Amino acid sequence: MRLLLVALLAPLALATVVGMAVLYPFGHDQATGGKLGLDHVPVPGEVTAVAAGPCTAGPGNAPPGSPQPAPGQPAAGQPDAGQASECLTVTVRLEDGPAAGVLIQQRVPQEPSTPSFTVGDRVVLAYTGAAPNDPSSYQLVDFQRGWPLSVLAGVFALAVLLLGRWRGLAALGALAVSFGVLVLFVLPAILAGQGPLPVAVVGSGVIMFVALYITHGFTARTSTAILGTLVSLTLIGVLGWAFAAASRLTGLDEDTANLIGLLGHGIDARGLLLAGVIIGALGVLDDVTVTQASAVWELRRANPDLGWRGLYSAGLRIGRDHVGSAVNTLVMAYAGAALPMLLAYSLSGRTFGELVTAQAVAQEVVRTLVGSVGLVAAVPVTTALSALVASGEPVSAAVARGGEEPDESGASGKDTEDEAAAKAPAASHADGASPNGDGRRSLDADPPTVPIDLPPGLRRHEPPETARRRR
């Protein structure tokens, strides 16, 4: 079986490496923010004052360095027709850049979508690179979030390490590899004009091989999980392509349209949609396939007499419970990501059928249902592969190759078959257990004796027959 696993996985791994080499944009002039007109430099700052007032900027409250308005044009800071009449004047001290320490004022219209600012807020301004001391060269764009995100990442890493220990450290390393593949391969390849779907397939293959083997080791258990993931990803890709074409999904939502406008060249929007489906389903598939493979190997270790059918039936019962919650997780994840869009559509007054068949909602429906079908298919496929491989190996070899971890004392947590066979009869006769091992005490078994320490001068009572035999 091990040779069969190698024969199946080795060509796939080689194809993944070759595909990565072919699709990577070697020597391609990568588009940058400056070339796309997004050459604003982020500058950190701290809010020192916030004042509410009219948006009209008179001589006394015009921002320092504001240019004089042209005839017929609104003054600096004065809103156009239809804009808010009240503004927040936010004073910011620049913390970096050529004008570090300088105070500038930014007027922000007071609208329902305007965030609130308080003194001490750490914000980010976009600097156009014109005049460092000119407030019109800056635009208040965001808040600084580096510190709280770093703390949250540290808490996450600590929780993983406390529970997983060395396995948790390997999982964090696999997470870093996955992030690196996305940032260093998938994104540059798509931006360079490569097809999003083949890039996503190759990138998912790299993530799957590297992340799973780093986290769970080079074992038969991990290999069967990878095979199950590959089969399910293939099914997801085929179903996604078929139903995206049948539903006439273009993939041209607002974000994709903006991306095409920035790049200045065409991009396969439908392929980008399918790439998102594959990458989004990969994480959940890994969870399901690894869990199913581990369950089958543990069943084999607990009951060595189980054959292929027994392992498959027991593993499938576990998988039914798992897939029920996993499908709900996938649906809720997509619904949570699309919640603002769902709220906006719910206010349109359209019927449920019209909402579901709209482009923006329909592509989320296809994404969710296709991913769920692949998730459901992963359970029987991975369970069957794991049962086939585990049942064909000796119990000791199956456990070792399955990746069993030792306990805290360094022991393997199991007796050998000879030790277990030697201990079982002694334990059964000692406690009067029934031969079938159902835990019931035999009626003719002697009750267990408990030693009792007697005070000095007292002698234990013995039946007459026992006393005569002793004499």
> Given the helix and strand composition, which structural class is it?
alpha+beta
Q: Give, in order, the helices and strands.
A: HEEEEEHHHHHHHHHHHHH
Round the mean pLDDT to the nearest integer and report it.
Answer: 77
Question: What distance separates the N and C termini?
Answer: 67 Å
Poorly predicted spans: 58-79, 400-447
Helix content: 55-70%
Shape: elongated
Radius of gyration: 33 Å
How many DSSP-defined strands? 5
Biased composition (Basic and acidic residues): 459-471
InterPro entries: YibE_F (IPR012507)
Transmembrane segments: 146-163, 170-191, 197-214, 226-247, 267-285, 326-348, 368-391
Protein name: YibE/F family protein
Structure summarized in a few sentences:
The protein is about 55% helix and about 10% strand. By secondary structure, the chain is α+β, with helices and mostly antiparallel strands. It is elongated.
